[in-house]
Amino acid sequence: MSQPFSGVGYVPSAGELIDLAFRRASRRVARRTGGPLEARVRAKERDRVRIAGSILAGRLRSLVSRFPDLDDIHPFYRELADVLVGLDELKKALGALSKAARIIEGLRRAYLSRLRRAPTVSEAGRLRREAYGRMASVVRRVARHLDFLREAVPKLARLPSIDPEVPTVVVAGYTNVGKSSLVRAVSTAKPEVASYPFTTKNIVLGHRDTPYGRIQIIDTPGLLDRPLSERNRIELQAILALKHLADVIVFLLDPTPACGFPLESQLRLLEEVRSSFPDTPMILAINKADIATGEQIKTAMEALGQEAHVISALRGDGVEELVEVAARLATGAHGLNGGPGKGSGAHHPP
Asked: Is 251 helix (H, G, I), strand (E, B) or coil?
C-alpha cells in the first residue's frame, strides 16, 4: 500500500498555469475555412477562451482531485500531515483552488455567450482579452495557495508507506540495543527503509507471515529511542502519531554496557514510553543473551520487577517465542478493536 500523498505529483505555480493555458489556447485553435472573415475571427476568439478556460479550470480541479480526502485518511497519516504542513492550511488551499476552478468555469461560459453576440471583430478581440485578464486574475489570487502546496507536497511525499490496516508491532528502546537486528531476524524478506518526519534517521519496516496472519514490524530509530521529555512539541506530535499505528510495542533492553546507556536510563525511557502509549500492549524483552552474563540478565529482570523475554536477536535465541506472542497480541488488538493501538496493559511472558 502506498501512502496517501504519493500520487499528488507536481504542483505548478500560478504563472506556469497561466502561461500554459494561454500558450496552448493560441496553438490549438482550429483553423477555420469558408464563411465570412469576421465570423471566422469571432469563432477563433471563442475557441481561445474556451480552451484557456478549460485548461485553467481543469488543471486546478485535477490538482485538487489528486489529494486524498483529508477527513478520510488514516489518523496516522492525518496527524503526520498536520504536524508537517498543517491540515487547516492544507484544506484552505485545496478549497481555494476548487473555488477558483468554479469561478473560471463560470467566466468561460459567460464570455463564450458574449462572444457569440459580439457585433465586430474588434469587440470579439476585446472580450477575449478581457476574459483572459479576468481568468488570469483568479489564478493569481490563489498564487499563495499554490505556493503553499508546492512546498507541502514534497514533504508529504516523503512520508513512509506503511499500511495501517496490517497489524503492527513497533520496536522501541535506546540506540544500539538491537532493534534493527530484531526486525531483520523476524522479517520474512529484507526489511524496507523509509524516511520519517523530524528525524534524520530512517525507520526500518519488516513483514512476517504468522499463524495469526501477516504482521509488520517497525524499528523506530530517532523516535522511541531517547526520552520524550527532550523533544520539542512538533517532534513529540510526530512521534505520538505512532499511537495510531502500533498494536503492540516491543521494548528492548540491553543488560550489558555495549549499547552505551546504563540500565537506569533505559528503564526511565521505558516508563516514558508506557505513559505516552497507555492503551498499547507492551512486551518487554532483554536482548543480547549471547553476550550478557547470567548476573546481568538477573539484574535487569529484577529492575523491571516483572518477567521479560530473554532473547538474542543476533543468534535467534528466544526470537520465535517473542514473535509468536507479539503476533497473537497484535492481531487480536487489531481485529477486536477495529484498528491499531486500542489494546491495554502489558504482556507478561509465561
From this structure: strand
For 30, which DSSP code? P
Distances (CA, A) of 184 to 1, 178, 179, 253, 294: 21, 10, 9, 17, 25
3-state DSSP of 143-187: HHHHHHHHHHHHHHHCCCCCCCCCCEEEEECCCCCCHHHHHHHHC
Would strands 213-219 and 168-172 be described as parallel, antiparallel, or unpaired? parallel
- Distance, first Cα to last Cα, the chain: 36
Phi and psi (nearest 5°) for 111? -75, -30
| CA 79/CA 82 separation, integer angstroms | 5
- The residues, ordered by sequence, that sit 6+ positions from 171 with a Cβ below 8 Å of its Cβ are 179, 182, 183, 217, 218, 219, 220, 249, 250, 252
Distance between CA atoms of 319 and 103, rounded to whole angstroms? 61
Count CB-CB contacts under 10 A for residue 207: 17
Average pLDDT over residues 141-156: 97
- Interatomic CA distance for residues 268 and 262, integer angstroms: 10
Greatest alpha-carbon pair distance for the chain in Å reads: 102
**Residue 27, number of CB atoms within 10 A of its CB:** 8
pTM exceeding 0.85: no
Residue ranges and CATH numbers for the domains of the chain are 14-157 (1.20.120.1190), 168-347 (3.40.50.300)
In this prediction, residue 200 carries a pLDDT of 63
